[in-house]
Structure formats: C-alpha cells, structure tokens
Amino acid sequence: MSGEWEPTLETVAIVGTGMMGTSVALALRSLDVRTYLLDCDHDAAMAAESRGAGIAGRPPETVDLAVLAVPPRSIAAVLAQEQAHGLARAYTDVGSVKAEPLAEAEAIGCDLTTYVGGHPIAGSERSGPMAASAKLFRDKIWVLTPQAETEADAVRAAAELVTLCGARLIIMAHAEHDQAIARSSHVPHLVASVLAASIHGVDETVLRLCGAGIRDTTRIAAGDSMLWTDILQANATEIAKVLSEVAADLDAASRSLSSGSVELTELLRRGNAGRATLMAAQNG
Amino acid sequence: MSGEWEPTLETVAIVGTGMMGTSVALALRSLDVRTYLLDCDHDAAMAAESRGAGIAGRPPETVDLAVLAVPPRSIAAVLAQEQAHGLARAYTDVGSVKAEPLAEAEAIGCDLTTYVGGHPIAGSERSGPMAASAKLFRDKIWVLTPQAETEADAVRAAAELVTLCGARLIIMAHAEHDQAIARSSHVPHLVASVLAASIHGVDETVLRLCGAGIRDTTRIAAGDSMLWTDILQANATEIAKVLSEVAADLDAASRSLSSGSVELTELLRRGNAGRATLMAAQNG
C-alpha cells in the first residue's frame, strides 16, 4: 500500500470566515479534516464554529495548509503576516483576482515558494458565515495559478484542497485568469449593479412591472459592496478593456433604436449566440 | 342568482400562436373556454392545436374576445384586418409596448371602442408554441390600458381574460406603462444582450470561468432577436432615456476603477439598494 494515495491534508487553517472561507471549512469538516478558524472579527470565527466549521482560534502548531479567504487587496498583507507567524507549511487563497495580490506579495517579501494562488468559480450574492455551504464547490471549476518557483508540496496541498471540496481543478497563469475572469464575472457584476441601481428610488409603478427578467439579471448586484469594490479595483485594467466594448455596444444600440437600422437586430443576435455558447459550454 | 357572476367569455380567438398566445390559449382551454388559433404561419397554429390549445383555424362566427399575440409593430395592422373581418366583439393584445400600437391603430382608422391594450408581465426566453405553458400567467401582474372611449364590455372581456389566466389585474395609462416597462424590462433585456454578446466568440478559457452569475445575468438574452428588435424600437424614446442613465453610471464606474475613489462603492451600494427594493416589492 503506497502512501501516495493517502490524504495528506490533516490540518487546515481558514483565515477569513466569511461565506467563502466558512464554505471551505464546512467541506473539509465533512471529511474530518481538522480546521482552525481565524478572522480579524472574532465573532465571525465564532459564528463559523457554531455552524460546525471547526475550531475558532489559532492552531497549536503549524498546519498543512492555510486558506486565505480575504478580499484580494488584503491577501498579500495577510500572507506576509501568517508566514511570519509560521501558520502553515503551504498557503493558498480563494480571491477572484490573481496578478495584483501576487505582485504585492512579491513586493513585500513574502515567501512565494509556499504560496499558490487559487480561485473557485463558485459564490453567492449572500455573505457571511451563515450563508456558507459545504456543497458550494461541488462540481465547480477551481483555478490554481502556481508559478515556476512554487514548491511541488504547496501545489499538491492546494490541489488536494480542490479535490476534497469536490471541485474540478484547472491550472492557469495569473494574467490569463485575470483577463478571462474580467469578462466572465467582474464585468457582469458591474453591469448587474448598474442595472439594479437604475431601479433604486423609482416609483411603485416600475416595481410592479418588474418580472423574472430583471430579477435574474440583477441577482448578483446584492453582493457585498466593499468586497466588490476591492475585487473590481484589483483587476481594473482588464475590466476597463471589456467595459469599453460593452459601452460601445450599448451606445450603438441606443443610436439604432430610433434609426430602424439592422444594427440592433445584429446586436441581439450576437447576444443570442453568446448565450447559446455559454449554455453549450456549461452543459458540455 | 344574478348573471353578473357567470363567466361571459365562451369563445376566444388567439391571433398569433407563439409562446405567449399559445400560453393564453392553454390557460383558457384548462377552463373549457372554446379557443380558435390563428397564425400567419399555419404550422404554428397546428403546433399549438397539437398541444391542446384549441382548434387551428378561423371561428365559424364572431367570438367574444380576440387576443392579438403578435409583435407590437404588427398589432395595429392585425387589429384593422380582424375588425374588418368581424372576428370578435372585443379585442386585446399582449404586447409589451402600448402607446405606439394605439397611435398606429388610431391613424389607420381602427375602431378603438372595442380595443383595450394589455400586457401580462410574464414571459420566457424561449419562443414558439412548444414553449407555452397554461401556468405562465399564474399570480403574475397583467396590465390593461383602457381609454375613455373604450366600451365597458371590451374592458370587462379583457379583465375576465386576466382573471381566467390566473393573473392580477392592474389598470394603467399607455404612457405610464411604457415609461415604467422601459426601465423594468426593456433596458434589462438590452443590457443582458450586450453582456451575452461580450462572450460571443471568446476563447474556451473565458467560458470555463463562467459561473452562475453570468448565467443568470444573461438568461433573457436568449429571447427572439426579431421580436425584441420590434419591441425595443416601438418604445425607443423611453428606452433611450433610461439607457443614457445606465451609460453614465457605467462610464463613471469605469473611471473610478483605477482612481480608487468612493464613486465605485457608491454605485455598488445603489445596486444593493435597488436589488433590495426589488426583492421586497416581489415578496410583498
């Protein structure tokens, strides 16, 4: 019986017990991995503990893996701090932006050999430990972005985390991830927010005429505004590129509304095609 | 036993057996109202008949009510034509734009005393008779837009249709409806289409990073592009007003992405508030 098939993750520290971090902890607890819950807001760690996500507080000794479930712009600082404390043998995160945190970590002298960036493509418009679910990552994509200098043991620990959470692992480069996620998630979030903002403060008549369309279109606009400010600003350059395309299309649509040109139909057809591609990819 | 509580709609003609028209017919058939299915594409009428929506073909005599389930820009012409044929004693429609069809109907000399505009706030991104459902309108809002000149019998027939379909009746003025629906439905549709178009032709990497957020945000972008061209152009003026707000917000967001200003958080908070208002209204 070779040891290579045995689970190697026995102890994991979750730093940041919001919806994402607590969901990771719950998934691990369901497989009896020992988890420690750290949060600068100790009440949040206690709330996660009350959900059965593990033990609130620092582990008695160095753990196998620390999962940094903090906003993108806090990742580098938390990594530096926890590496200084010797919290874990390996570190990963669950942030939706990868390049900027890595550059910051490098700039402030983190040990990048034990850190591998991560991003599960799963979430919720709800936030906090009470919105967490052990099944959040089941069958979802989970990106890891190791670099040449990342130690094999760190990659292995992060990859095992992905597997234990029931997700599907994809390896990507940081820049490639950030470019793609700007289009697949960050711009949709911003657009949904703008749309939801357009019904803020309107009169009752408009609200009565809101159906399933605008309800689905604005669902993600309920996401935490401070967290999303952080995410969007951390990926500003890539988002701006896609936003300029979106703005140009909206502008063209607006002009062709009254001109009766074929441009509007053409845009709606591209929308049909994009939607069909998405559904085919998700069902395939 | 007074006759005023008896159902008065015994025969209804559905003109246009797409998803909406066939859904109306199915709802009526479930209550044993006799329905006749007319469509310029006779195959569509036959398909609706095969779903149990009624009898494909013109009724042998004048019916109680005709429901015009055709695109907004065809309503006036179809109304004129069917009034000339003496199809029904009263006419309504299910189009999502009300002012322009009415103005057109007036311009081409329709009898407006027997016509009452209608718009059920229900739909699907799918189209055609096979996508129809007898339950489509259950508990949904259904707007009627009678005018001073509309005969009471026509209003009564249309209101009974709303009740028979299980929907909740709201009376509004044409202009008020069109202004509100631009914000609650037409602009969201256009924005969802632009977003879906932004992932048309992108590489596999982007598609793999698409999660539930963009899936929900773009659902309605699957709607029929010719029908939606018609709808959006028929309500161009009201849509353009809302679109200019949306464009200004997107532009401000784009600028504040890199500047680190509070404008971005402010926009996301307005999005949170708009979303919360919407959910409160829909659950209330």
> Largest interface, by Cβ-Cβ below 8 angstroms: which chains and how many residues each?
A-B, 92 and 92 residues
Largest sheet of chain A: 8 strands, mixed
Helix-strand makeup class of chain A: alpha/beta
- Inertia-based shape of chain A: globular
User: How do the strands line up in the largest sheet of chain A?
Assistant: 3-2-1-4-5-6-7-8
Unreliable stretches of chain A (pLDDT < 50, length at least 5) are 1-5
Number of strands of chain A: 8
Secondary-structure element sequence of chain A? EHEHEEHEHEEHEHHHHHH
Cα radius of gyration of chain A in angstroms: 21 Å
N→C terminal distance of chain A? 36 Å
Helicity range of chain A: 40-55%
Mean pLDDT of chain A: 95
Q: Counting H and I runs of at least 4 residues, what is the number of helices of chain A?
A: 11
Please identify the oligomeric state.
Answer: homodimer
